[in-house]
Design a protein that fits this description.
The complex is a heterodimer of chains A (286) and B (247). In chain A, 37% of the residues lie in helices and 29% in strands. Chain A has helices spanning 43-50, 72-75, 94-104, 109-122, 138-150, 168-183, 195-201, 219-226, 248-256, 271-285, and strands at residues 3-14, 17-28, 32-36, 58-63, 66-67, 79-82, 156-160, 187-192, 204-209, 212-217, 229-235, 239-245, 263-268. The longest helix of chain B is centred in the N-terminal third of the chain and has 32 residues, at 54-85. Chain B is globular. Classes of the chains: A alpha/beta (286), B mainly alpha (247).
């Protein structure tokens, strides 16, 4: 399948400190890809490079076959971005924010109003079109940013921590919206530090730690590598320890041999276990 | 395409301005009116400069500094806030428009605001000093002043790393220029060394041009040329600064 994003040998240094370290990554057309990492791992810097906001120190990025560094003007029509922070113009209404974006993306004037109405409907905000940005809730602001990012019908959507700071209900609604966009054919590149978000949404994930890509695969594939069954052992001395096994039989055998644990829980492993194991081991290794 | 994209950038500010025009005008007119009262009516009452009353002398100077302040703040302060706090400037950088359009649009915001403030003050000033002459050369100089200081604002905002940096720039550059840029006194009255130093300020040339045009004196074309050079330098500086922060 054609690659929507192709990153090769990407590096970014800030004052000699490597923030992105020789990153190689491909994201296929139509994929919903999760880019995970702890705070400060290099997720946002990577997105900023992919979206022309930051110059890489070296390396190459192609978006839908277009070289980001060589032809930034052309590549900007290919993607939409929902940034981590609120980046709406607070002096404008929700609809005016969308109109500004439509103008900057050269939508014909007769198409603009139609597209704005269509997208506000899509994110269930038609009733709030004429509200000033500061007069709507955090969740609505986030949905308005998603609508704005979609206005020029991009093939690729970058979502940088799209649900940060949202309550559980609103987060689920944003998840539904992301799934809907992906089903409609948009490739989605999602960064998040909510592991359950990546697990719920993404067909494939990459884990970045200290600028390096340290794991890549499907959520189930990464869990299989770690072990599908997790055993949590709570002890007085060491707090909670975790062990992972390929199946329940091996996990039960291990539990029977255990002595001195206060509380033992056997459960299915999840992506959070993978994340903590990998990033924890890397931190210890470093 | 450059003009229409620049207009798109300007459009957002025009919408805001339309919504809050009265508040904007009141806020922006307070300083020049205070200068007019304090210097024109207070200190300068009865002073005559080569056959011109001090009030007539000082009004074009206050218009020049109003154009400077309103244009600089209109473009620079707003851009600084959009870039550093609201991050909405990133959205403009990620739009498929040329960097020239982006810069021009941001500078036009300052130019529109500077022109509006200056014209509003001018209307008030015409009631007080009806003998000043407003012709095409005056308006040309006013526009050039506004766009020059708008680009200075854009440049400062692109170089600033915080909102405090903008405050520092205003205190170190704009505030001294307000009082020393030929606005409130004639340069012929200052010592030679200082006079040459004051000719290095863009506001000095804006004041000289606007005063000559308003008082029907022979036009100082050298000042017009110097203003054009400042305009070009600030525009080029802004482009270099913008290229440093985006692709």
């Amino acid at each position: 399948m054609r690659e929507m994003i192709a990153i090769s040998g990407l590096n970014k240094d800030y004052s000699g400190k490597k923030v992105v370290d020789c990153l190689n990554l491909g994201v296929a057309q139509g994929e919903l890809f999760g880019f995970l990492g702890p705070n400060g791992a290099g997720k946002t810097t990577t997105i900023r490079i992919l979206t022309t906001l930051t110059k890489p120190s070296s390396g190459r990025v192609l978006i839908n076959g277009i070289d980001v560094a060589r032809d930034p003007a052309s590549v900007k029509s290919e993607f939409g971005v929902v940034q981590q922070h609120l980046s709406l113009n607070r002096d404008l209404t929700i609809a005016e924010n969308l109109e500004l974006h439509a103008r900057l993306h050269h939508l014909a004037s007769d198409d603009r109003a139609k597209r704005i109405a269509e997208l506000l409907d899509y994110v269930e905000m038609a009733d709030h079109a004429d509200y000033l940005v500061d007069d709507v809730s955090g969740g609505m602001k986030r949905k308005a940013m998603i609508a704005r990012a979609l206005i020029h019908r991009p093939k690729l959507l970058f979502l940088d921590e799209p649900t940060v700071g949202l309550d559980a209900q609103t987060r689920r609604r944003v998840w539904d919206l992301i799934r809907k966009m992906n089903l409609d054919g948009t490739t989605v590149f999602l960064t998040t530090h909510y592991i359950e978000e990546a697990e719920a949404l993404c067909s494939r994930v990459g884990i970045i730690h200290r600028g390096k890509l340290i794991a890549l695969g499907t959520p189930i594939g990464l869990r299989q590598k770690l072990g599908m069954i997790a055993v949590e052992m709570q002890t007085n001395e060491n707090g909670t320890e975790y062990r992972y096994f390929p199946d329940r039989a091996l996990a039960s055998e291990f539990i029977q041999r255990l002595h001195g644990a206060e509380r033992i829980v056997m459960r299915e492993s999840n992506l959070e276990d993978v994340f903590i194991e990998i990033t924890g081991q890397k931190a210890l290794g470093d | 395409m450059i003009a229409s994209d620049a207009y798109s950038i300007l459009w957002a500010d025009l919408v805001t301005l339309k919504r809050r025009w009265s508040r904007y005008l009141i806020t922006t007119l307070i300083s020049p009116l205070l200068y007019l009262v304090a210097f024109g009516w207070g200190l300068g009452r009865g002073i005559n400069l080569n056959g011109t009353s001090y009030l007539e002398f000082v009004v074009p100077g206050i218009i020049a500094l109003t154009a400077m302040t309103a244009s600089f703040n209109g473009a620079g302060t707003r851009l600084n806030v959009d870039r550093i706090y609201y991050k909405s400037f990133d959205e403009c950088i990620m739009a498929p428009i040329k960097l020239h359009s982006l810069l021009l649009g941001k500078a036009l915001i300052g130019t529109v605001r500077g022109t509006l403030s200056s014209v509003a003050f001018l209307i008030v000033a015409m009631l007080i000093a009806p003998t000043i002459h407003i012709g095409p050369m005056f308006l040309l100089g006013l526009l050039l002043t506004c766009i020059t200081f708008s680009f200075l604002g854009v440049l400062a905002a692109l170089l600033a790393k915080s909102h405090e940096d903008m405050g520092t720039f205003s205190s170190i550059i704009l505030l001294p220029m307000t009082f020393l840029g030929g606005t409130f006194f004639s340069l012929s009255q200052v010592p030679l060394g200082l006079k040459y130093a004051l000719y290095l300020l863009p506001l000095t040339h804006a004041s000289l041009w606007l005063r000559a045009a308003a008082l029907d004196q022979s036009l100082p074309w050298t000042s017009f040329l110097v203003l054009l050079i400042f305009f070009g330098a600030f525009m080029e500086g802004s482009m270099i600064a913008l290229k440093k922060i985006s692709l």
